[in-house]
Write a structure and sequence with these properties.
alpha+beta
Length: 145
């Protein structure tokens, strides 16, 4: 059974490990710690069998704008509903905190992620050139509540 809960500061090494295994340009620990310090409610972890296997960072900004900054699941635990459970929980939390819509960015080359977000009701938006450290374009995606 998948359990979604708030992350704790002492779990940052696990979150960093997931970052490093999932992203070519992972967030540094210092940024994750700053995001947690300013937005602890938006840091979620997914547990499976008592082990943290995924995480999500989300926030409400500018009053009514939700933003998903990161979502990742260890590769060996994908396709088990963990990412979906994290997103559903986060979307509920953002809506309860006043978000009227949610935005996220995804690599243009990551078609699998784009399809995943579309299944959750997100639509494709504009492209942002040179968004990622390696120069790749980001595609914005939006969902209204």
């Amino acid at each position: 059974m998948i359990k979604i809960r708030g992350a704790r500061p002492d779990e940052m090494p696990i979150i960093i490990d997931i970052e490093n295994r999932c992203f070519p340009d992972p967030y540094p620990l210092s940024l994750l710690q700053r995001l947690y310090a300013t937005n602890p409610y938006g840091f979620l972890v997914a547990e499976l069998g008592g082990k943290i296997v995924g995480y999500l960072i989300g926030a409400v900004r500018w009053g009514a704008s939700g933003h998903i900054m990161a979502v990742a699941v260890y590769p060996e635990y994908r396709h088990r509903g963990i990412g979906t459970a994290l997103m559903v929980h986060a979307l509920d939390t953002l809506r309860m905190r006043g978000a009227k819509h949610v935005r996220l960015e995804v690599r243009k080359s990551n078609v699998v992620a784009q399809q995943f977000y579309q299944k959750l009701g997100f639509t494709l938006g504009e492209e942002i050139p040179y968004y990622y450290e390696d120069g790749e374009i980001a595609v914005t995606m939006f969902r209204e509540f």
